[in-house]
From TrEMBL:
The keyword Hydrolase does not apply. Required for rescue of stalled ribosomes mediated by trans-translation. Binds to transfer-messenger RNA (tmRNA), required for stable association of tmRNA with ribosomes. tmRNA and SmpB together mimic tRNA shape, replacing the anticodon stem-loop with SmpB. tmRNA is encoded by the ssrA gene; the 2 termini fold to resemble tRNA(Ala) and it encodes a 'tag peptide', a short internal open reading frame. During trans-translation Ala-aminoacylated tmRNA acts like a tRNA, entering the A-site of stalled ribosomes, displacing the stalled mRNA. Residues 124-150 are annotated as: Disordered. This is SsrA-binding protein. Belongs to the SmpB family. SUPFAM superfamilies: Small protein B (SmpB). One of its GO terms (molecular function) is RNA binding. GO terms for cellular component: cytosol. It is found in: Cytoplasm. Keywords: Cytoplasm, RNA-binding. The gene is smpB. GO terms for biological process: trans-translation; trans-translation-dependent protein tagging.
């Protein structure tokens, strides 16, 4: 994984991530330039199926400062590029098991191409979130105790 552009840190708190996939994105030139400046928000984004493919909805890429009239719409749906086999697998899981496809992180790979790591997820209930917090706090406390002990 190369340089990270944006990370959805709340995704692992709000969802159980069952499987992760890497996907490409169809972007415009001004969108890539804005991403190179490190400006993107994937917090509220999710993937949905439309008639001709899988789209990332609510991904916010702000307008490029020097884009003038050729600038893009910041919230337009962007098509995800994946293998057909993966798309069929994801479609089956979403329809059969009621799962969601959420973006986990967005980054430039080694070749400088924008990639999105998406996770097949199911939502957590409130008690699951509390358990996650407890585990995280216990891990921190354990590290503190080990540090003080040695």
């Amino acid at each position: 994984m190369g340089r990270t552009i944006a990370e959805n840190r709340k995704a692992r708190y709000n969802y159980f991530i069952h499987e992760e996939f890497e996907a490409g994105l169809i972007l415009l030139g001004t969108e890539v330039k804005s991403l190179r400046a490190g400006r993107a928000n994937i917090q509220d984004a999710y993937a949905s199926f439309e008639n001709d493919g899988l789209y990332l909805v609510n991904l916010h890429i702000p307008e490029y400062g020097h884009g003038n009239r050729f600038n893009h719409d910041p919230l337009r749906p962007r098509q995800l590029l994946m293998h057909k086999k993966e798309i069929k697998k994801i479609a089956g899981q979403i329809q059969k098991a009621g799962k969601t496809l959420v973006p986990l992180s967005m980054y430039f790979n080694d070749r400088g191409i924008v990639k999105v790591k998406v996770g097949l997820a199911s939502g957590k209930k409130q008690h699951d979130k509390r358990a996650t917090e407890r585990e995280r706090d216990w891990g921190r406390e354990k590290q503190r105790l080990l540090k003080n002990f040695s």
